[in-house]
Amino acid sequence: MTRFIFITGGVVSSLGKGLSAAALGALLQARGFKVRLRKLDPYLNVDPGTMSPYQHGEVYVTDDGAETDLDLGHYERFTGVPARRSDSVTTGRIYQTVIHRERRGEYLGATVQVIPHVTDAIKEFIAAGLDGDEDFVLCEIGGTVGDIEGLPFLEAIRQMGNELGRARTLYIHLTLVPYIASAGELKTKPTQHSVKELLGLGIQPDILLCRMDRALDSNQRKKIALFCNVHERRVIPALDVDTIYQVPVSYHLEGFDRAVCDHFGLDVGEPPLKRWTDIVQRLRRPEGEVKIAVVGKYTHLQDSYKSLGEALTHGGIANNVRVDLDWIDSEVFEKPGAVQHLEGVHGILVPGGFGERGAEGKIEAARFAREHRVPYFGICFGMQMAVIEAARHLADLPGANSTEFGPCQDPVIGLMTEWLRGNALERRAAGDDLGGTMRLGAYDAMLAEHSKVRAIYGKSRISERHRHRYEVNINYKDRLEAAGMKFSGMSPDGELPEIVEIENHPWFLGVQFHPELKSKPFEPHPLFTDFIRAARDQSRLV
Ligand code: GLN
To answer: Do residues 20 and 238 make contact, with C-beta atoms less than 8 angstroms apart?
Structure first.
């Protein structure tokens, strides 16, 4: 029997609903249940693919090629369950579905309305694309209770509670209990008001998860319980923690997953949480520290690189070192001599990115890493910049560039339509991944024998997630290889370079895909594990 758990947020945004959902998913999974996590976002964009990273942080990509909210990354990292397109929906997509149906005449002359047509489409989505054997589907509702956009979602989940009954549905409300310094007290009133707002929409929360920066005393807990009509044991304090991987452990100690099981009448024992406590131990007591420069464009908003930051932390867990990240805006390298910012770092990572601004700075960072023998990891755009750098300075092609920035003399990076001809182009067109549209989702790559990547992965065929429009131009392969940049990973048809590496360098890799999307704390991605290992070796040299 599949049960539905709905997670709403109140008082303010940014309380960490996504992490709370992910942590509960992990706890239920540790208790032996099969879980799936979903996110319902109230904005009108059909998906976050078109949103600026400044607006919405990272765009998380699933194996099946959906561009989704970054919370899906938390879900996947915490539960290991690969997210799917059907796990993310927005108001934009719901309305698009409803309007298409209306245009096709599927509503048979009815007046199409928010209730029931939009709410029906939301309910369909919540229950669609499941395997059927899930014990729990956790649905996070984006935004904050009280937002106009969120109303159809709240109405839909209210209806589901009625239709499926309380034995199959549970409402969790995440609120803030702020500490007011002048009163010297935690204040419960915002929580009371937020719950009133929910009650006004017909939803009585079953569990309150209360974010606070200090412990609640028993009187305040009683007060919340009384005014919000929730049992005291179901008022769960959620205190700030030093690492996000402590969240499942802390929630468990506060009785969160027990309260969920009690609601459903599930009489189960204690979940084994050793894998979480082990990770936290390693993070708290590292044996050393490495300093990694992340040279990007959106560096002042680290949510834009959420999965990347986590994957680097995972690499640190695997090597027992703390990973100290130095976020550097690549534009600083466009002034003469500024590459000295990189002296003393143990590794340089250039992440994914779009557009010309800051590109020359990234090329300079790649050059510094190559010439100074500092471990370099180029991801997507960071690989493309490393290829341009090698073309210009190793292969004697000073006019090398990417056509993403306009026409150039040697388009070492470009759209595949610019060079694929005849059969190869037709094959790719049939596969619907023509240049000019994004290559999104999982694609396989074949790894060359005797290459560094082959040794790192320990296998010859891999699958990784992509999100890019431009490709390394296969026509420059021979020239770049002769100059020392090997094409060590290729698409199975041999047309698209997936991985490049520089020989005779401690660690210099560029990958066209986003390995950070698949890294997990208890299963660090091999490329991040090995990059941090190389950085650790470097830290012993400098
Ligand atoms: N802008 C580049 C492209 O579209 C790289 C994209 C990325 O780094 N995700 O190919």
So the answer is: yes
Model confidence, pTM: 0.92
Give the pLDDT means over successive 10-residue stretches in the chain (542 positions): 96 89 97 96 88 83 94 96 96 95 94 96 95 96 93 97 96 95 91 95 97 91 94 94 95 96 90 95 94 87 90 96 93 81 92 92 94 96 97 96 94 85 52 59 96 97 96 96 97 95 96 98 97 93 62
- What is the atom index within ligand 1 of the atom nearest the CA of 353? 8
Closest by Cα among 399, 341, 400, 331 to 368 = 341
- Protein residues whose CB sits closer than 6 Å to any atom of ligand 1: 352-354, 380-381, 404, 467-470
Q: How many A from CA of 380 to the centre of ligand 1?
A: 6
Which of 67, 294, 381, when mutated, tests ligand 1's pocket best, judged by the most ligand atoms within 8 Å of its CB? Answer: 381
Judge contact between 513 and 307, C-beta under 8 A. no
pLDDT on residue 436: 42
Pocket test for ligand 1, best of 67, 294, 468, 473 (most atoms within 8 A of CB): 468
Q: How far is the CA of 241 from the centre of ligand 1 (A)?
A: 35
Residue type, 215: A
What is the distance in A from the centroid of ligand 1 to the CA of 328? 19
Domain boundaries 3-279, corresponding CATH code: 3.40.50.300
Distance 425 CA to ligand 1 centre (A): 21
Contact 39, 138 (CB under 8 A): no
Asked whether the beta carbons of 203 and 169 are under 8 A apart, the reply is no
Out of 1.20.1530.20, 3.40.50.880, 3.20.19.10, 3.30.200.20, which CATH number does the structure's domain 287-539 have?
Answer: 3.40.50.880
CA-closest residue to ligand 1 atom 7 = 352
Q: For residue 514, give the ligand 1 atom closest to its CA.
A: 9
- Which positions are catalytic? 380, 514, 516
Strand, coil or helix: what is 292? strand
| d(CA 351, ligand 1 centre) in Å | 10
**Integer CA distances (angstroms), 78 to 61, 229, 530, in order:** 16, 31, 22
Other Cβ atoms closer than 10 A to 398: 11
Q: Which part of the chain is CATH 3.40.50.300?
A: 3-279
In angstroms, rounded to a whole number, what is the distance separating the alpha carbons of residues 436 and 327? 31
Token output for 449: 């024998």
If you take atom 5 of ligand 1, which residue's CA is the nearest one?
Answer: 381
Pocket test of ligand 1: the residue of 307, 384, 496 to mutate, having most ligand atoms within 8 Å of its CB, is: 384
What DSSP character marks residue 188? -
Both tokens assigned to 538: 């470097």
Helix, strand, coil: what percent of the chain each, to 5? 45, 20, 35
514's tokens: 């986003």
In this prediction, residue 304 carries a pLDDT of 87
